Amino acid sequence: MNALYCMLCEIAFEEANQSFTSDGLVLAIYESSATPIENMAYNVCQIAGNLNFSASNTSDIYTLSLAEVLLQLVFLSRSDALLHYILDVLWPQLEKTGRGYEHSHYPTQLVKRIIAQIAVFWENNRVILLIR
Asked: Can you tell which superkingdom this protein's organism belongs to (predicted)?
């Protein structure tokens, strides 16, 4: 989870400053024209896909934390492929393997619904912006 938080911070900084701060942790995504944010988003998905929730007694906290990371990720990296990967691959994996998932069920289901709604908006060429 620490690696995910680190990558999320780097994505936020990249978006704000348009300067890549990672020290070589980013992998090329699918093509050489990928932006640093796309590369970092891809890395976040790779890390999240390898998390083992059964290794911790506090997996319900990690489940909620991962849901928060994924929600922030879709706001920072606008990509249909990313949305579909989160909803079609990562989320079912989270629901199947996340021990303690029932304890954080309502907040994580809300996040899932928000991400799904963002996907619908993006398919219609609309963007949801967070207003602070």
From this structure: Eukaryota
Which tens digit of pLDDT belongs to each residue from 19-29? 444 444 444 34
| Residue 18 zone, left/alpha/beta (φ > 0; ψ -120 to 50; rest) | left
Pairwise CA distance, residues 20 & 18, whole Å: 7
User: In a 3-state reduction of DSSP, which class is residue 48?
Assistant: helix
Residue that is written with structure tokens 């991962």 in the block? 66
Classified as helix, coil or strand, 27 is: coil
By CB atoms closer than 10 A (0-12, 13-18, 19+), residue 21 is exposed
What's the pTM value of the predicted model, to 2 decimals? Answer: 0.63
Other CB atoms within 10 Å distance of the CB of residue 86: 25
pLDDT at position 57: 63
Segments in the chain forming alpha helices (H): 2-17, 36-49, 59-76, 80-85, 91-97, 105-123
**46 with 85: CB under 8 angstroms?**
no
